[in-house]
Amino acid sequence: xxxxxxxxxxxxxxxxxxxxxxxxxxxxxxxxxxxxxxxxxxxxxxxxxxxxxxxxxxxxxxxxxxxxxxxxxxxxxxxxxxxxxxxxxxxxxxxxxxxxxxxxxxxxxxxxxxxxxxxxxxxxxxxxxxxxxxxxxxxxxxxxxxxxxxxxxxxxxxxxxxxxxxxxxxxxxxxxxxxxxxxx
Length: 184
What we know:
Blueprint: H1 3-32, E1 37-39, E2 42-43, H2 51-59, H3 61-75, H4 81-105, H5 117-142, H6 149-177
Antiparallel strand pairs: 1-2
Helix pairs in contact: 1-3, 2-3, 2-4, 3-4, 4-5, 5-6
């Protein structure tokens, strides 16, 4: 297999892995927080929200394509095919655009050198806001905005709460596995 084919195959595997991960994380969230569901598309805690900016930061366009695929897997069967594809595109492209914008205004290089916790929190904030507006804007255009204006708030709060929980758990885990610093 030549280098170009290996690269394409690797990207396809990464897209599939990200998509499957998104779908499984969404199902896990629905099970864990079933009582905190405002509507089928708005949760007061949505843990997979942290996965959006992280997938895009780490994998760029591949991460975005994986999120589109994962959204497709998650949404299929809940609405007509055109709306499902459009929603999936929105749910993959809007966080990609938010991260691109955030990286530009925060001056984060492609290598992610100098990336700090506050950058990740700001990127989660941008992704949550973009997701809340684009998802619910499209549902409003379709006449399927079940929860009214509160649904926009629910999506934003759920994404931020989920991101906060996941980032906190990651920081605790990293603190446990990182070797202690030597004191001078």
